[in-house]
Design brief:
The protein has 320 residues and is α+β, with helices and mostly antiparallel strands. It has five helices and 20 strands. The protein has two domains: 62 residues, no CATH class; 248 residues, no CATH class. Helix content is 18%, strand content 36%. The protein is globular and about 65 Å long. Pfam families: b-prop_At3g26010-like, F-box-like.
Length: 320
């Protein structure tokens, strides 16, 4: 009897050890690859997970591990920021209207979890924020006047070596002389500098974005989505109006194969392309196509301010 009791305890201990190992595997190898909203739900599983998810080291690890487009920020017809998730259960932010910022803003651009907004009062200051953590920074006043609607790009790549975000904000605006000027803000120096660019991209249609680290563009041509990738990395240093080929097209995507066919649907254009995601619009209806999974999804009807753009967003815990 004693021998049977010992064997039972031995098997119980082994099972408990296996369970603990599996829990550790999930904690170390699965949690960092989840989006921020899912992680907030996972923090209710147990005390250990809650403490882990709340640490700066975990936030840093997650911002380097999770990089998928999770949804889109846009301005409503009332001018209020809002968020359209690809999956409402998995992706989201606690305050899509961004009321935690000190003034009403317009959403300008986003990159790897950071969102750039521009204030509507005074000199229209730029703000960089993380909508998940509600942490934000107000940038110093630029040296130049960027005008009412500058073209703004946020450049940020998560790094294992930096626990705080090291980013740049590039603003293009009409020059008083001719053409366009560029002013760039660096978080490293906390200052602006005027920069010039000698190359102009060839005339293009559709939306510009980043895919696999390269500039890409996408547009609708009949019943196809046409996606091209910048093939010449030195195009910005070449002579203007050079005949060198700059773009390489990837295989076309047939709309009838990836999206619901309907005679009433009139594909207006690609409104966003980035990562593996293409967002198309038909009036107030939006459809998303995943180029990697070759799967589509109807995101429903959304009433968007036609003047404002649509900004892709990664649901990240990145620290500012």
């Amino acid at each position: 009897m004693d021998r049977e009791k010992k064997l039972t305890n031995l098997y119980g201990n082994k099972n408990n050890k296996i369970y603990m190992d599996l829990k550790d595997i999930i904690r170390e190898n699965a949690l960092p690859y989840l989006p921020a909203k899912s992680l907030l739900r996972c923090s209710g599983v147990c005390r250990d997970w809650k403490l882990l998810i709340s640490t700066p080291f975990f936030a840093h690890n997650q911002s380097n591990s999770f990089c998928s487009i999770s949804g889109f920020f846009y301005q409503t017809q009332a001018g209020v920021p809002s968020f359209m998730p690809l999956d409402p259960m998995a992706y989201g932010v606690p305050d899509p209207s961004l009321e935690f910022l000190p003034e009403p803003v317009d959403v300008r651009c986003s990159c790897n979890g950071l969102l750039c907004c521009q204030g509507r009062t005074g000199y229209k200051a730029y703000y960089i924020c993380n909508p998940v953590t509600k942490r934000w920074e107000k940038l110093p006043k630029p040296e130049a006047d960027h005008g009412p609607a500058p073209a703004v790009v946020l450049a940020f790549e998560p790094s294992l070596l930096n626990f705080t975000a090291d980013y740049k904000l590039i603003c293009a605006f009409p020059s008083e002389l001719d053409g366009f000027e560029f002013e760039i803000y660096s978080s490293g120096t906390r200052s602006w500098r005027i920069s010039e660019r000698c190359q102009i991209l060839d005339s293009t249609v559709g939306s510009l974005g980043i895919r696999n680290g390269k500039l890409c563009r996408g547009h609708v041509n009949g019943q196809y989505i046409v996606v091209s990738v910048l093939s010449n990395a030195h195009s910005n240093t070449m002579q203007m109006h050079s005949a060198a080929k700059m773009w390489k097209e990837i295989p076309e995507i047939h709309l009838d194969l990836c999206l619901p066919a309907s005679p009433s649907v009139r594909w207006e254009h690609v409104v966003f392309i980035g990562g593996d995601v293409v967002l198309l619009r038909d009036g107030n209806m939006f459809y998303c196509y995943d180029m990697k999974k070759k799967a589509s999804k109807n995101l429903g009807e959304v009433h968007i301010d036609t003047v404002a753009g649509i900004v892709g967003y990664v649901n990240s815990l990145v620290e500012l």
